[in-house]
From TrEMBL:
<keyword id="KW-0812">Transmembrane</keyword>
<keyword id="KW-0472">Membrane</keyword>
<feature type="transmembrane region" description="Helical">
    <location>
        <begin position="72"/>
        <end position="94"/>
    </location>
</feature>
<feature type="transmembrane region" description="Helical">
    <location>
        <begin position="147"/>
        <end position="165"/>
    </location>
</feature>
<keyword id="KW-1133">Transmembrane helix</keyword>
<dbReference type="Pfam" id="PF07155">
    <property type="entry name" value="ECF-ribofla_trS"/>
</dbReference>
<feature type="transmembrane region" description="Helical">
    <location>
        <begin position="43"/>
        <end position="66"/>
    </location>
</feature>
<feature type="transmembrane region" description="Helical">
    <location>
        <begin position="106"/>
        <end position="127"/>
    </location>
</feature>
<protein>
    <submittedName>
        <fullName>Membrane protein</fullName>
    </submittedName>
</protein>
<dbReference type="InterPro" id="IPR009825">
    <property type="entry name" value="ECF_substrate-spec-like"/>
</dbReference>
<feature type="transmembrane region" description="Helical">
    <location>
        <begin position="12"/>
        <end position="31"/>
    </location>
</feature>
Length: 174
């Protein structure tokens, strides 16, 4: 295994752990068995910093682990699928939109595009899951909470990304 693959594996495990921690540290319960947290910011950063595939696995595993450790095991499979898809999409979009440019620094428009798509996948994914498991009224009740959570996560990840991209080891991962 070469040095870059090893670094990516280690940073992937680190992002999964940070996603778990960010999800569990601030934990504000919502109406229908959900909770507001900052883990989605780490999911977004995982996709952007590690690339679509490694970032998707880190975001999905970290989020699912938080559900398992927090007593939300029922949500864990859906969380893994939703957050994996969100991180993959965010990473793919960010890298696709920044590929043609020579600078490797922070770019606001690709970040916002990736963040909004990531937020849409998370909010829509949980809406569909809760629509199937509960009912339409219950699913609709959680949409505003998910949007607030995603807004806070977008702000936090938007503040962290420019700082993290200044670190050569992190910048060279994707």
């Amino acid at each position: 295994m070469n040095s870059k693959k090893t670094k990516k594996l280690v940073f992937g495990a680190l992002m999964a752990a940070l996603t778990t921690a960010a999800t569990m540290v601030i934990h504000i319960p919502t109406a229908m068995n959900g909770y507001i947290h900052l883990g989605d910011g780490m999911v977004l950063l995982s996709g952007i910093l590690l690339g679509p595939v490694t970032g998707a696995l880190a975001g999905g595993i970290g989020s699912m682990t938080a559900d398992l450790l927090s007593g939300y095991a029922f949500y864990a499979p859906a969380t893994f699928l939703i957050k994996t898809l969100a991180a993959f999409s965010a990473g793919y979009l960010y890298h696709r939109l920044t590929r043609s440019r020579l600078k490797t620094g922070y770019r606001i428009l690709p970040f916002l595009t990736a963040g909004i798509v990531c937020s849409g996948i998370v909010t829509g994914g949980y809406f569909i899951f809760e629509l199937i498991v509960y009912n339409a009224a219950s699913a609709i009740i959680n949409v505003p909470f998910n949007l607030v959570q995603n807004l806070f996560s977008l702000v936090v990840s938007g503040a962290l990304l420019p700082i993290l991209l200044r670190i050569h080891e992190i910048r060279s991962l994707s």
